[in-house]
Amino acid sequence: MKALLAEVVGRANECAEYEVKTIFIGGGTPSVVDAAWIEKLLAVVREHFCMAEDAEISMEVNPGTVDLDKLLHYRRAGVNRLSIGLQSVSDEELKTLGRIHTFSQFMDTYAWSATAGFCNCNVDIMSALPGQTTESYKETLARVLALNPPPKHISAYSLIVEEGTPFAELNAQKKLCLPEEETEREMYWDTYKGLMEAGYEHYEISNYAMPGYACRHNIGYWKRSDYLGFGIGAASLMENCRFSNESDLEKYIEAPLNCRGELVCLTVEEQMEEFMFLGLRMIEGICVREFEEKFGEALWEVYGSVIDKNIRDGLLHMSKDGAYLALTERGIDISNYVLAQFLF
């Protein structure tokens, strides 16, 4: 944490002309550290950066790592949005995932968040878990929707088996009982139907929010706003250049201001690719005029054949006013296939 604070202070002069509109404390389990460190961190950011008065300040918390006192500290420190990692209401499924908490502990955490004054909470849930059925997943959805007060935001992710993980090893040995692809898609559309009926807006492939509560920080990622990452392995995008921090703990602590990897300045073609495959994750899609303003070329001149093909295949559609290009429901089902076509 001392190294992290040193990095924040040392990088401030790079961003003197920027206004900080969102902060996201996450990428792991930041709620495991003493709450005083979170207060110190936000105080240092405020001291050394220009922060918007209405800045969205999110923090990830995991049940089992917080109590009411910690949450009260976060709120006093200025955190105004919590993201709570539930994943499932089934203790058996949580155990399979290697989570340290139970559903009961989540319920305690959620109740404490309201007591601490948080009115903007996200709840993370997951589908396509080993051994999960459509019935057990519907139970997770139902219990999340029954929370009082209801969460302002719900992130509903499908499990991805990453290389180099215990799940990947078990899967290779055919010891991982994952739901069929058809079942996975059924879970996805059960999520969509249930949350839309409950008044949520579907604004990104995996994210739903009550009106006015979409996550501003994550929208910045999908719209390619500049962002600066601090800490071990943190990634950044500044003025169309990407770079990441050292991921080795000891090396980072030793030299937090000399921990950046290679600076990769994106070509115009790479910027176009990102504009398309990140922007199309948004349910409204990408703005045709914005593409032309950013790159000085008409969207159809660059991607006309790809767009036309996917419109014919029923995977993309134009908004009625012709301003936005977006995935169709069928396109969402095979979004990776569609998005990959925008790589040159």
Describe this structure in words.
- This protein has 344 residues and is α/β, with parallel strands linked by helices.
- The chain has 15 helices and 13 strands.
- It has helices spanning 2-11, 35-48, 68-77, 91-97, 103-115, 134-145, 166-172, 181-197, 216-222, 249-254, 268-279, 288-295, 299-312, 329-333, 335-340, and strands at 19-25, 50-61, 81-87, 121-127, 153-158, 201-204, 207-209, 235-238, 241-244, 264-265, 286-287, 316-318, 324-327.
- The chain has a seven-stranded mixed beta sheet with strand order 1-2-3-4-5-7-6. A three-stranded antiparallel beta sheet has the order 8-9-10, with no helix packed on it.
- α1 (2-11) runs parallel beside α2 (35-48) and α6 (134-145) packs parallel to α8.
- The mean pLDDT is 95.
Read across the widest sheet, the strand sequence of neighbours is 1-2-3-4-5-7-6
Strand content: 15-25%
How many individual helices?
15
Average pLDDT number: 95
Shape type: globular
Briefly characterize the structure:
The protein has about 350 residues and is of the alpha/beta class. Helices cover about 45% and strands about 20% of the residues.
Key terms:
344 residues; alpha/beta; seven-stranded mixed sheet; three-stranded antiparallel sheet; globular
